[in-house]
Structures are given as C-alpha cells and as structure tokens.
Amino acid sequence: MSLPQPLMFTVGMIDQITKPIAKVSNSLNGLTNDYQRGTMKMASGVAGIAASGYALQNALMPAIEMDRALGEVKSLGVRESALKQLTDTSYEFALKYGKSSTEFVKSSYDIQSAIAGLNDADLSAFTLSGNVLAAATKADAATITDYMGTMYGTFKNEAESMGKGEWVQQLTGMTATAVQVFKTDGKKMADAFKGMSGASKEALSDQMAILGTLQSTLGGGESATQYKAFLGGAAKAQEKLGMNFTDQYGKLLPTIEILEKLKGKYGDLTIASDRLEIKEAFGTDQALGFIDLLSKDTDALRVNMDALGKVKGMEQAEKMASAMTDQSERLSQSWYVIRAALGSAILPAFNDFVGLIADMGSGVLSFTEEFPTLTKWLGYAAVGVLAFVAAGGLISVVMGASIMAMTAWSAIIKTGKWLNAAWTASVTVMRAAMFALNLVMAANPILLIVAGITLAIAAVGALIYYWDDLKASFADISWVNVLLTGLEYAWKAVEFLFAPLLWAIEELASLAGIEIDTSFEGVKGLIGLEKVPATQPQASSIPSIAAISPVQSRVERGGITQQISNANQQKSTHIASVTINPAKGDTNYMNFVEMHS
Hints:
Layout: H1 5-74, H2 80-97, H3 101-114, H4 120-136, H5 141-154, H6 156-162, H7 164-182, H8 186-196, H9 204-214, H10 220-241, H11 255-266, H12 272-282, H13 285-294, H14 298-309, H15 315-323, H16 327-370, H17 372-442, H18 445-465, H19 467-472, H20 478-497, H21 499-511, H22 520-527, H23 559-569, E1 574-581, E2 589-596
Helix pairs in contact: 1-3, 1-16, 1-17, 2-3, 2-4, 2-16, 3-4, 3-5, 4-5, 4-7, 4-15, 5-8, 6-7, 7-9, 7-15, 8-10, 9-14, 10-12, 10-13, 18-21
Transmembrane segments: 377-406, 418-440, 446-467
Organism: Pseudoalteromonas sp. SD03
Domain Phage tail tape measure protein: 94-283
C-alpha cells in the first residue's frame, strides 16, 4: 500500500534532515568518548606515578626526618661515630618512654651548642638525661636542654672534676627529687637557676634545696630574686646587726648557718622592731621575706639539703618518667622507630636517585641557555599540547552540560505532569465542594424566595407575551370589570404587605431587560385593560378592551433562552487547509480547501 504523496514528502524531508544531524552527533559522541578514555588513561598513569612516589616517600618519611635532624647536629662538627651513638640512644629512649626520637636528636643540637668538647658518650648522656628529666618533670625538651647548659656553666668545675656524664646524671636525679619533694616542676626550677646566674657559690644540693623551698610559695624567677637579695645584703648586714656571717677566709658562710644565727637572735620574727631592724640591715624587702620564710624551719631545710646531696644517679628521674609514660605512645613510637631503622638502610640509595633527578634541573637550565630558539619552540609545542587538551576538555564540558540540560528539562516535564495531575485532582475536589455548596444553598429558605421571585418574573413575561391570545378568549366584559375591581383591592394589599418584594421584582426584571411597573395602574397598562362602564350596553358594542399597546419588551418569543440560542446560531466556523503536492507533474501546486459553517 503506497503512502499518500503529502506524507511521502514529509517523511522524505525529515529523512534528509535527520541523517546529517545523526552523523554529526555520532561523530561528536565518538570524539568525546575517545577523549574521555584517553584522559582517563593519562590521569590513571599520572595518578599511579604520584601514588607510588607518595607511598615511597611516606614509607621513608621517618628515616628522612631522622636524617634531617642528624644533619643539623652534624653541621656543628659532630663526628659520624657520635651521630651513630646518638641515633641508637634516641631509638632506645623512644621505645622506653614513647617520646619522639626525632625531637631527641634535635635537642642534642642545643646541648652541643652550649657545651663544647663533648665526646660521643657525653653527647648521648647529656641528651638522654635532658629528655628523661623533661618527661619526668612535665617540661619540654628545649627548656630542660637550656637548663642543662645553664647548670653546666654554673657548676663547670664540679662537672669537670666528677666527669661530665656522671655529673649530668646526678643533676638529673637531683632535679627530679627536688621537683617531687617541693611540689614544683622542671620549668620553675630552670627559671630559678637561670635567675641566679651563678650568684651563689654554695653546693648544688644546698642551692636546689633553698630554691625548692622558696618555690612552695613563689615562682621560679621570684625565688631567685629573693635569694640574690639575701646574698647581696649579708656582708653589710653583719656590721649593722653586730653579727659575723663570714668564715676565717672572709667567705660568706652557708645560707643555712646564717639563717640559724638570725633565728637564734630574733626568733620567729614576730616583733615588728626586729623585722624593721633586719630589713634596714639587709636593705630590701626581698631579703626580709627570704629570711622570714626559710628561718621558720631550718631543720627541715637542712634535711632536704642532705637528702639532695646523697643523690648520685638519675634513677628517680627514670622512675618518674616511666610512671608518666603512655603505652599507646610507646606503640606508636615503636612503629615509627621500625620504619626509621628500615628506611635508613635504603635511604642512601633513595637520596642518590632523588639527587640525580634534582641535578637534571641544572642540565635543563644549561640547555635553555645554550639553545634558546629550540627552547622557545619546545615551549610552543608544550603550550599547543595543553591547548589541545583544554579543547578536548571543553568539548567534554559542553557535552556534559547538554546532558545535564536534557536531564533538567525531563525533570521539568515530569514536574509539569505532576502539577497537572495535582491540578486535576484539586479541580475534582472543587467540583465536589461546589456540589455540596449547591446542596447547602438549595436548602436555604432565602434561596427559595429568590427562586420564587424568578418564577414570578418568568410568569409575568409569559403573560405579557401571550396576552393578545388571552384577550381574544375573553367573551364577557362585565365580569372582567368585576375581576379588575377585585384585583385592584387585592393588589393594593399586596403593595402594602410586599413592597420590598415588589421592588426586588422590578430590579430583577430590569436586570433581565424587562421594564415592569408593579403598581396597579402599571399592571393594568401592562395587560391592556380598562374598566367598562356599567350603563354601556354590551350587545350593541364591541368589548371595550383598550387597544393599548403592551410594553415593548426586549424578550422574544421563547424568552431569554431563545435569545441565547439565536446569538449562538449567528457564530460561524472557518476551517482552511493547504496541501502541497509536488508529485503531480512538473509544476508544484497546492490544493486549498475551505470550509464554512
């Protein structure tokens, strides 16, 4: 069965248009897919290279960080043997106390800077003592390292005579004991000895006991200030007080002995005049405060001095550090130490390889300086490749945007369908509501009155329209007069009782296009009747029905409904169509069909 010629023309035209479009679309889709596959492969390759490099660097990071820290210490002229021993000591410290081995090595930089001439064992011993003391006294390694340098500068002779390694262990144990006994911490003790600046020549144990006792009520710096004020005013005070505070060589007696002498003469310093005399003798309030605080219990002070003097090693510091060790930190540092130890074995090879790649930078720089033109064209080529990649990316972006637009359009269409369905449902509900409202309104008595008025208007209109036929049927005029008389009285009663209703009838009739006078005269004029005189003989005359023209109404026969129908019949429908038929003959022509209704 052959298709009609117009349909064949339409199908052919669509086919001629859609085929090239389909080819172009397929080409673009193929190009986009190829570009995406190439981009994904290239991205996968780059990501693989980056991931392997990152994984290797992450695996070697502990060894790299340790190598950096050792490099800082090496810059101070430390031997390789000392660095090797320092590394082993840092690993042992990290495994035992769960602290950073890298920070351990970095702290040795400050030790080496403050104390020159340390051998391999001494450098490791000082660094280990400082970090153990920091862990035991809740201080940071930098603070304790600085404290070690200050103490070595103050008690250098004792350290040299005793041995640096042994002396630093004693210092560590003594400091930890003082922190425990006097309820202080490593930072306060470091601040106190730093504030002293070698002002006292007493034994380390005596100074530590005095400063520790002062720190029960004062800070580290304030305790050093009071101690220095006391020492500075003791030589002058002995003359004013008539007391002797020096030995046979002119050296100042130990602080504990001076305090005992003052306590023996003035007691517990509760008398105001005694306090004033001591203040004027020593010259400062700080010195008075120092004497007032320490002279109250010189026996306890002497006991603490003796106890600190008996400390020889760092056992107390190790106990305190072990008690505050977090086992989860130990586990973490164990894994770190293992990676650092394993990485250090292959780190030299890694450094050589990375260094070789870094050296290529200088080669590239030399090439660009020697061949500037070639470098320029290579740069252009690189820019061209990047531009090509960017163009492909742009195509992918456009295709992706079109897909997103179509998806969004589909979503809009679906939303429109949902809204249409919702609107249909709402209209159905509104219809049901209107039906219910009509039922309610119909049950309202006021509506019944309005309906009655409407029927009355319709009846009056029908009476007007059919009045000529009704008059022709009247045969006796006398009864008409009687009827009119009765109607007049009845109508007056209606006018009196239903005046508002009659007014409403007039207004509603006016709205319907009918002019009505509801008075009795108006009703008579409406129906075209006059009273017939009683003396007039009925047989000799034609019934005297006045030929008064009825009120001209705009309502035709059939009423308002007929008017609406006539108005609708005046409308017409015009349908036109054009058919292009190129198949008949050589000349194109069109068939024009026009329909009227």
